[in-house]
Amino acid sequence: MTVTALVLAGSRLGEDDPVARFRGVANKALAPVAGVPMLERVVTCLARTPRIGGIVVSGADQAAVTALPALAELVQAGRLTVMASTPSPAMSTAAAFDAFGSPLLVTTADHALLTVAMVEHMLDATPDWADASAGLASSEVIKAAFPQSKRTYLRFADGAWSGCNLFFLRSNASRSVVVYWQRLEAERKHPLRMLRLISPWLLIKQRLGLLTLRAALDGIGRRTAARLAVVEMPMAEAAVDVDKVDDLHLAEELITLRH
């Protein structure tokens, strides 16, 4: 099964991104990490992954993308498409899904440490029954590799997990998950409305430490009529995205150790 890959490379209107500011670029996706723009690192990794067919970049300026020789070659070869920017990641994902359909792998341009092995694991470990899956790394895996790194965890009764900016929309039924994401994103400034969309009961159980990860997925699945799965990522680097200058330094350190 050939999979289309979507790279979210946009930024919110008026957003003052610390990494972009530190590197002196207009878009964080173009910030160099160990001398190579993050967007180029992500796209060329996807291009080397056997099961990835077409690659779509959303949110980056076409001229900026084609100014990078490695990406210009992919555009000329018909392998890479640049989509117009949208106001939000969910809207970009919906536009790509409508244009290219499923299966669609979604990642972000700031996933500077992305490897072929991570992408292959995400695709291979998604169960056949799942309509959509999300890559997560456990707190144990991350803390063993990066004991000093501060990460944000989703805490459940059966463990704490960090997102890996890897999502696999495996079937057409996963379109409803994207629509649900758009609804949540539209209400991000209205906590009570978001609460109603997510389910007050699930949030109460989570606050009490009674909600398991599987129960949370099943709850969202009921609201989207989609079968949802988690792919546990065994590589701690999968959970490192470059959101802060400290993340940038960590990514550069890890890239240097690879060579």
UniProtKB/TrEMBL annotation:
Residue ranges annotated for the MobA-like NTP transferase domain, each copy included: 20-132
Keyword Magnesium set for record: yes
Q: Which GO terms describe its molecular function?
A: transferase activity
Keywords for the protein's UniProt record, in alphabetical order: Magnesium, Transferase
The record's InterPro entries line, in alphabetical order, gives: MobA-like_NTP_Trfase (IPR025877), Nucleotide-diphossugar_trans (IPR029044)
Pfam assignment, any one: NTP_transf_3
Q: Which Gene3D superfamilies match?
A: Spore Coat Polysaccharide Biosynthesis Protein SpsA, Chain A
Q: What is this protein called?
A: NTP transferase domain-containing protein
Higher taxonomy = Bacteria, Pseudomonadati, Pseudomonadota, Alphaproteobacteria, Acetobacterales
